[in-house]
Every structure is written in structure tokens, then in C-alpha cells.
Amino acid sequence: MRICRFGNDRLGIVEGSSVHDITAALDVLPAYRYPLPSSDMLIANLDKVLERARMILPTAPSLPLATVKLLSPVANPTKIIGAPVNYQKHLDEARGDAALHHGNQIAVIHKTGVFLKAVSSLAGPSEGIALRKLDRRNDHEVELAVVIGKQANNVLRDEALEYVAGYCIGLDITIRGPEERSLRKSADSYCVLGPWLVTADEIPKPNELNLGILVNGEVRQDSNTRYMILDVPALIEMASSFYTLYPGDIIITGTPEGVSPIQPGDTVVATIERIGTMEVKVRAA
Ligand code: MN
């Protein structure tokens, strides 16, 4: 199932070129009081919401997909976890190009571990990317994004996929420079998530997906998730050995080779097999 958030915080199910508005299914969410739970409420209750959604689907209003404004499929993650240089050819290009490494030592992910992007960097595809630091290089990175479905602590790789709610396309937009990754990758809109969440049952093999990105119609990245250094279960195992993962937490799993600059006025089109395609416009902040 493909679940999207769209328009004015509506919830939808995508089928073909239509979106079925199932916002009323959110009525099954518990009535929360402050302090809110440490998880995304939709993802934490996804089974219940989808059960209701299936009931109301036959009479749900439908809209053409092309006319809706797509938001991030996850509204309130507690963490956005990034996997630095998790493809060998991207590691090679990063080490070989001073415009990418800026004198930072680029170590393999086994040594570096994972990093965090601010949750305030999250944006939907229709919201676009608002570039900052225009005197510096801003790069696109297309990545498979994993959305955690249930609380995960010290999970072993053999069970790791049981903790996944679904998958999205993630864009890990990056200002090049000497600062920590968490700063350079955390500007508002620098984590684009979309176009929808594909539930995990539809993607039994997340480590065998073609992924790529076009900038203004030109192919810049074109690879497959099989070339990840740490695959999806290994990333969940590593991350959950340091901290608890909560429903709605997002792991962006690293980008393949071919990163390149983007400028205001550009249009990027990112595609991941079995998930879909999303178009994102780039502007100055
Ligand atoms: Mn990245």
C-alpha cells in the first residue's frame, strides 16, 4: 500500500494516478495529552489506521495525484539518521575530490558510524528545496529511506526488517564544507521525503532496488541498493545498538556515486524501484 500525506495535512492512499482521501481514518488515533509520546503517531498506529482506511476506502473521495501537494509521509520523526558514504564508489569519489571532502578525513562507515539530521530539515516533495549558503556547493544525494515501524533497541540483523514500516525516497541535501555533517545537512528542507510511504510488505528485498536522480533531465546518479556497504538490516542493527529507534524514525541509507551541485531554478527527479518517482524544485531560501 502507498500512503501519502498531502494538501492541508490530509492522509491518502495512492492507487495508479489517483489519491483516495482517507483522512477520516485518523479518528482511530488515541486522544493524546501533553507530553506527547516519543514517536510519530501515524506510524505508531499505522495498522489501526490502515484497518479503518480499508473500511472507508470504497466511499473515500478521490483526486488526481498530479493535482495534490505532496508532504513528507512522516510528520514527526524523533530522529533522522544518516549513513555517511555508504557506497564504495561514493567513498572513492569523496576521497578523490577536495570539493567533496574539504580536508575532512573520509572514513568507512564501520568507523564513522551514523549521524543525525535535524528533524526540522524534513520537507515533502511539493515543498521544494530552499538552498542556503549559495556561495558554497550544495549537492543532491538520492537515498533509500527506511521508516521504522515499532520500537527497536539492540535489534539483530536477522530480525531487523521486522521493525520496518515501509520505505520512501529520501534526498539528503548537503552543503559542502568543513563543518560537522549534522550542521551541513540539517538546513530547513534539506531532507526531502516522499513521494509516499510504501509499506514494507511490498518491498521484501530493500537491498535490491535501482535508484537514481536526474537534474534538469540529465542523469546524475544511477545505481542499486545492493552496492551499500552496510545494508538495511546492518544499519538498523548498528543504530539500535546505540539508541532506541521509535516508530516514525527515518534512516536514510547513504547515496551512491554521482553527487553533483544543484542551484536555484533546478528541478530534480528522483526514482527508486518499487517506490516511485518524485519531482522536487530547487529555489534560494
Ligand atoms: Mn547522504
Describe this structure as you would to a colleague:
It is a single chain. The protein is α+β, with helices and mostly antiparallel strands and 285 residues long. It folds into two domains: 2-71, SH3 type barrels (Roll); 80-284, Fumarylacetoacetate hydrolase, domain 2, CATH 3.90.850.10. It is 16% helix and 32% strand. It contains seven helices and 19 strands. The chain has helices spanning 41-44, 46-56, 88-96, 98-101, 109-112, 181-184, 232-242, and strands at 2-6, 10-15, 18-21, 62-64, 70-71, 80-82, 115-117, 122-123, 129-131, 138-139, 142-148, 164-172, 174-175, 191-199, 210-215, 218-224, 250-252, 267-272, 276-284. Strands 1, 2, 3, 4, 5, 6, 7, 8, 11, 12, 14 and 17 form a twelve-stranded mixed beta sheet that branches. β15 and β16 form a beta hairpin. The model has no long low-confidence stretch (mean pLDDT 96).
List the helices and strands and how they pair.
Blueprint: E1 2-6, E2 10-15, E3 18-21, H1 41-44, H2 46-56, E4 62-64, E5 70-71, E6 80-82, H3 88-96, H4 98-101, H5 109-112, E7 115-117, E8 122-123, E9 129-131, E10 138-139, E11 142-148, E12 164-172, E13 174-175, H6 181-184, E14 191-199, E15 210-215, E16 218-224, H7 232-242, E17 250-252, E18 267-272, E19 276-284
Parallel strand pairs: 6-17, 8-14, 9-19
Antiparallel strand pairs: 1-2, 1-5, 1-14, 2-3, 3-4, 6-7, 10-13, 11-12, 11-17, 12-14, 15-16, 15-18, 18-19
The structure holds manganese (II) ion.
Manganese (II) ion is lined by residues 82, 141, 143, 172, 254-255.
